[in-house]
Design brief:
By secondary structure, the chain is an alpha+beta fold. The chain contains seven helices and eleven strands. It has one domain: 4-Layer Sandwich (Phosphatase 2c, domain 1), CATH 3.60.40. α1 runs antiparallel to α2 and α6 runs antiparallel to α7.
């Protein structure tokens, strides 16, 4: 597995509240992306705590030979641990009360890839056949789309598109959704915050990743498109490509 990552403050925000991490341990490639909320300092702190705690929990727990169900359970427990860490920090410092963050992650191992999310950061699977979103947003507009009240395109422009219904740190307990997927050699997973998805269309992502040029600069090209479109939020993305033999 080859992995690239990028994060940028964008053109409007004064501080980058996103965070991401990539780690390889015990035969697994682990990626996590967070988008903090709760004011500049609080959002930045929440995403940093979440990424650090989540990755620590998974690297301690994952062992060779785990089946996907066990991996998914480990990811859910790591998210719960990150949730507790954020709430404990907020309890120690009242100015951080209410801080939280999204979390989207992928763990690639010998038996496939397990994806987990809380909030509206996303994972896409990108192949020669097209681009498909794996995760489902925990947001007000996603609920409206599921009910048929608005279309996907209307959701991108909706004034309440930033209202999420689930996050790390906001409640005593948190539920993360889990998904399974596979990648053939040359296929990709893209993990990203909404700073990318509100400014770069699915088709632009698909083109740049498969046909836009050198894959080493792919995320830089996607970031450039986001900035051309105004980049009103922080932009963070991690790209995973399956290599021959899964290495």
């Amino acid at each position: 597995m080859k992995i690239w990552g990028i994060t940028d403050v964008g053109l409007v925000r004064k501080e980058n509240q996103d965070a991401y991490a990539v780690e390889s341990r015990n035969g697994y490639d682990i990626c996590a992306v967070c988008d903090g909320m709760g004011g500049a300092a609080a959002g930045k702190l929440a995403s940093e705590i979440a990424v650090r705690t989540y990755m620590e929990a998974l690297t301690e727990t994952l062992e060779e030979g785990m089946d996907p169900d066990t991996v998914q359970s480990a990811m859910a427990e790591a998210a719960s641990r990150a949730n507790r860490a954020i709430r404990e920090e907020a309890a120690r410092q009242p100015e951080y009360a209410g801080m939280g963050t999204t979390l989207v992650s992928a763990v690639s191992g010998p038996e496939g890839i397990v994806v987990s999310n809380v909030g509206d950061s996303r994972v896409y699977r990108i192949t020669s056949e097209g681009i498909r979103r794996i995760t489902r947003d925990h947001s007000l507009v996603e609920s409206m789309v599921q009910r048929g009240d608005i279309t996907e395109e209307e959701a991108r422009r909706h004034p309440n598109r930033n209202l999420i219904t689930r996050a790390l740190g906001t409640d005593e307990t948190v539920e993360s959704d889990g998904y399974r997927t596979e990648l053939a050699p040359g296929e990709y997973l893209l993990l990203c915050t909404d700073g990318l998805t509100i400014t770069v269309s699915d088709q632009e992502m698909l083109f740049e990743i498969l046909h836009g040029g050198d894959e080493e600069s792919c995320l830089s090209r996607l970031l450039a498109i986001a900035r051309e479109h105004g980049a009103p939020d922080n932009v963070t993305a991690v790209l995973m490509r399956q290599t021959e033999g899964g290495e």
